[in-house]
Amino acid sequence: MATTAWHIAIIGAGPVGLALALQAARTLPQAQITLFDARPAGADVSGDPRTLALSLGSVQMLQRLEAWPAEAAEPILQVHVSQQPPSLAAPWSALLGPPEVLLTHSALQVPLLGAVLGYGALVAALQAAWLREEAAQPQRLRSRFGTPVAALKALPSGVEIDAGIAEPFDLAVVAEGGVFGNQPRKALARDYGQTAWVGTATLQGALRGRAFERFTREGPAALLPVPPGEDGALRAALVWCVNAAEDPVRDLGAAQRIAVLNTMFPPSAGRITALSPLKGLPLGLNAERTLVQGRTIRIGNAAQTLHPVAGQGLNLGLRDAHSLLAALRGARDIDQALQRTEWQRAPDRWATIATTDFLARSFTWQLPGAPSLRGLGLAALQAAPPLQRWLARRMMFGIR
Predict the structure, then answer these.
(1) Does residue 277 fall inside a structural domain?
(2) What is the pTM of this model?
(3) Residue-range definition of the domain harbouring residue 21
(4) Is the pLDDT of residue 89 over 90?
């Protein structure tokens, strides 16, 4: 383990920042760690509309940290991806079958493919675990909630953080990302001209643990299983991506939205009987070309904000945090550890950025054959189990 008593600042107490702080507290026993966030410690985050889809690798990481709120999460046991409308008339359909892919935990021999839970539930669990660590080791762990960071200034061998007073640190980790619509633009930015309408649907005739992603002409739509309501009714988080310029959702009433959604998803998804109020979020790509600048490193949404089409944004950020800690844990030189992290994260990071960007932009192409090509890809994937397993492991664990 590293023996140097580094002073490390972590800026942002969202899921990635808190997970990093908790890991650092336990794996860097000589380091002094300060966690900054503009949000007061007692602020209620339960109203955040975001629902998080975590891969198996992310779930296992949080379980190891003893910060996994199992009671608030719903396991994903199957993932069904399909094209709507089906390309039944395509010449390849008789050979390859319908444009759909079904992944199951049993076929992949894993306990689950991932899990779904609310943003607030995960933040609350991680924050509680961090505060317990801080209370046990106040001499080296401290929180600065309700303290926005105004500026970062590079020093010859560190970073000066201005958060009301200027303090020097050996390393600053920026994990404060937010959502695309509220971010200043980074080096690689693209507005997809799409809106994601998010909310919760009540289902009838569905099976627990099944997630659905449907490729439509407007964009992808997903139903992600969440814990049943107090009445026992099955529910799913809805992510409904549409063209922002000609938004077909904004002016619809709840009953109209339900009627449209019930024509979009396959019958195996169940019938939507109720829908919460939906919130619209603009979608885009916003990424840094490099993670490291001097003694500052950006991870999670602070490094790359992605389209939700593959549900990989948070999982990528947690892998960023894990790789950074692995590099620091055995290092005596911060700069070498940062260079190692930059190099190691590049394949996973850029492959995920490229995949989500390609899929997101494909819905804006005005090409007659684009839906058929997507359908062909899905059908070919379903017909090739080895390729399915390779892709599933990529989604669950990233590139290792």
Answers:
(1) no
(2) 0.93
(3) 7-48+119-186+285-359
(4) no
